Amino acid sequence: MKQPRILIIDDEESLRHMLSVMLRRQGYASDTAAGGAEGLEKLGQRVYDFILCDIRMPGTDGREFLRRALEQGVTAPVIMMTAYGTVDTAVACMRDGAYDFISKPFKRDEIVIVLKKAEERERLKEENRRLRSQVQEQCGFHGLVGRSPAMLDLYDRISRVAGLKTTVLIQGESGTGKELVARALHADGDRADRPFVAVNCGALPENLLESELFGHVRGAFTGAVGDKAGLFEQADGGTLFLDEVGEMPPPLQVKLLRVLQEGEVRRVGATTSRSVDVRVVSATSRDLAADCTAGRFREDLFFRLNVFSLALPPLRERLDDLPLLAEQLLQRCAVRIGRSSSSRIAPEVMRRFMSHNWPGNVRELENVIERSLVMCDGDQVTLSCLPALGGPGERHEETEENLSIKRAGQAMEISLIRRALARTGGNRTHAARILEISHRALLYKLKEYGLE
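Predicted structure:
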């Protein structure tokens, strides 16, 4: 087993010696430095597992050492030591990135306890990294599942652009997992520890969407009782995901273009702008190029958003991934509804899945699996549990159930309602208009079909 190595930084020689002897008896190897500058030199010569550093030292003090060490990319836990009872300073160090602090004079076992806690934390972090690596190797990439050529190409393109601030446009049919791709872009880049903020541009009316994106000041409109930061400000330093950006009203398209060009936002009702550092990722199920030609979407905004494009393949074009994807969704649904984690899909059901066209893509697959789990009495999803699958591409024997006009009509209504809600981002009023039924009728059907 590797012997943990510690760097001890303190301007008191007697304390450095005492800590070195004590930690050697506890199984640690140690190096010492008389100040922050010497400590930084040591970091350039050797990799340490832990660092003990005094806060008050002449020259380069503990806070300055911590700042410069983190700038150099040091990942070892740094434990600050202070003899002055200035807890505020120690807490400030923790805000700056220190793991913990301990006050002098301290008992010998206090240092050991803190180090053991840090050691356990590092062990758990490494275990989590190993498990995530295994899951990604077996299943996919940052939550995306699949090893088909189309998905492997997608992972490669994500990796190429993840670390850049380049705007990315994700295109794909409804239900293909565009938000998962946006989250993978964020998680794989250098903004992973900063905010990821998502908004569906088709789910909010124009005036509310403007306030959500850019914020507002007190008195800007009725109900604006105080200042509010918008999503651009909330995502500062991180990523803002604009889902269904093609549904954004034209007046807001102009304001979004201005933010992308100038890196500044102005709250509704404000007279000054604020600088923001935001990586914008957008997604759409529409053909934005055609919308530009038709005058429904600004061409200059399209070019600004579409600097780098990612196209998501529909499920029907990557059926090789379906068995693994179905098993992943089965376990997720089982946990969500409280069913056994040993639930499994019968081979004949998997064959039925492989013959279906999946017009609703992964979202439809997850819906079918969850409904099947609800209908199953045991741990296995069988054909008797399976809801009727409609749409082109499905090839299975005709039964009385499949020939039912009533059931076919219900399935068609459910499919149209889902598509309308997906198109509008869940906005029921807008969906009712698309379906050409009243809002009350839509609410009734949502309740009747259990789609709420």
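Summary: The chain has four domains: 5-130, 149-313, 316-396, 398-452.
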